[in-house]
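Justification of resources, computational component.

The compute hours requested in this renewal are based largely on the per-chain cost of generating structure records like the one below. Each record pairs the submitted sequence with a full structure-token output. That output is archived, and it is also reused by downstream analysis tasks.
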Amino acid sequence: MRIVLVGTGYVGLVSGACFADFGHHVTCVDKDDAKISSLTRGEIPIFEPDLERLVQSNASAGRLVFTTDLVGAVADAQAIFIAVGTPSRRGDGHADLGQVYAVSREIAKAVRRFAVVVTKSTVPVGTGDEVERIFMEVNPSTNVSVVSNPEFLREGAAVRDFKHPDRIVVGTLDERARKVLGEIYRPLCLNQAPIMYTSRRTAELIKYAANAFLATKITFINEIADLAEKVGANVQEIARGIGMDNRIGSKFLHAGPGFGGSCFPKDTRALIKTARDFDAPLRILEVVCSVNDARKRAMARRVAVPFGGNLRGRTIAVLGLTFKPNTDDMREAPSIALITALLDMGAVVRAFDPVGMELARIEMPDIQYSRDPYECANGADALVIVTEWEQFRALDLDRLKREMVCPVVVDLRNVYDPGELTRRGFLYQSIGRAN
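The structure output for this chain reads:
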């Protein structure tokens, strides 16, 4: 099938590359000339495992092309996926739908045949209705079916998630659109991935509800971790104990410094705003957001505990800057709030991340950046593990101790065993375990 992806960000690029790998002819459109030129050369603007190989192989095979020409791309397309950004709007936290609506107007002017217009971007309930209205306003004779098809991709595992999904949600009551989407996703039927057809508004809300529930689960275990510390319990064993219950499940029960990234913070805020607009406030989510924001800022106080609460003049080494491993995404990463608070407390901050430092320099230009974990730890009074990259799980602890002025390790991801670090002479703090 002839498919167009409008937007070459995280969702658009991964989706386009995977669709092309299924055998479809895919055109990815973006208004950024420099970005399209880079993609045409096979240069990937984001870090995502296996994505570079997928883009290059399908581009070489002629199934994946990149262009800035939206009009030419959509004229004869059978399916047009809108995958532009919907960042939080300043002031009220609602999703900014400016790009979605602008792209919809451009597509309405250019489409020449029946096409399925698919909203892949994460959008609030009712967005599809407005997109449909835009098409009728701009081009009353247009023949399109507007569908919601939310993505459920985890950064760091997006390619695998796309090819081995838990479910595919298609929001439409139009039988023509069902056939087109069914054909597009037919290769996944071999994996027995369930396709769930529902109304458009239901599909839009499924995406938000899923992310909000996972954010709630993370916040819940983080608060249980704080209680576990107070009473002398182990949050990892608690998580395992409750996660063995099939009604709860073991995923997203890892205590840490709070959730971040491009989805959970933005989507929970947007859902809260939507709920207020419809006079159905989501009090649980309001508390989740408040608790999570406070938690990220509070992590700096944990670092200060071994020094009597005073970090002025202390050098703090931070390992891990991205919001999770296997991505270079710095959006709302816990490291930002932590480092900002450390600087406010008078500390000198030095940091290292395997892939995130280029983007981190934009967010935090006033800290020092190191070439590896040991250079980062050299002369440090404390070391903080913020992101659980694999290479941080097997550090040479003896070398680490020799590099540091004070052998203080604050492990915000519970990477290490407290007994082992203590035996090696470290003052070790973790989350939700005896310190």
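The radius of gyration is 24 Å. The chain has two domains: 2-198, 206-435.
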